[in-house]
Design brief:
Elements lengths: L11 E6 L5 H11 L5 E4 H7 L3 E5 L4 E4 L1 H14 L2 E5 L12 E6 L2 H10 L4 H12 L2 H9 L5 E5 L3 H23 L2
Parallel strand pairs: 1-5, 1-6, 2-5, 6-7
Antiparallel strand pairs: 3-4
Amino acid sequence: MASDSPSRQAPVIVITGTPGTGKTTHAQLLSEEAPITMKHINVGQLVKDNGLYEDYDDDWQSYTVDEDKLLDELEPLVTSGGIILDWHSCEVFPERWADLVVVLQCNHTQLWERLEKRGYSLKKIQENNEAEIMEMVLEEARASYAKEIIVELKSESTEDMESNVARIVEWIRAWLRDRDQR
């Protein structure tokens, strides 16, 4: 279950999904629209900026993350709450950290087009598309967290994004009401 730390005055939300599903855009918008201060942390960027990796894989054009360094970097931030963690993976984050895990999903044809626009290699597009079709990120979330805190949201249009963010804002308001009643 998620942390019930009395010192946590704001939730920790994990926004995850296959690359190209809109995690960063959702997280940025949510940080702007949340009823309380929520800091958006793009975990991939944090890894690059702070050297939290072991090496760079040229073949896959990605970093091999040093999970211990990453968790050490995030722990003090997560402890106080008010964090939106945006990353293509969620299983590395301890279960006690997350109050809500949002898994964004997108039609694989649309995802393919998004990844092409980003200039991804064919190999990387195929790998990510297969991961989306097989619902690998959703399965990872289900294996890592209590089902009550996982929500799957379609992310195929601007309307989806706006609706999703509004839904998460309402969830934050409910979380805050629940905290106040304790």
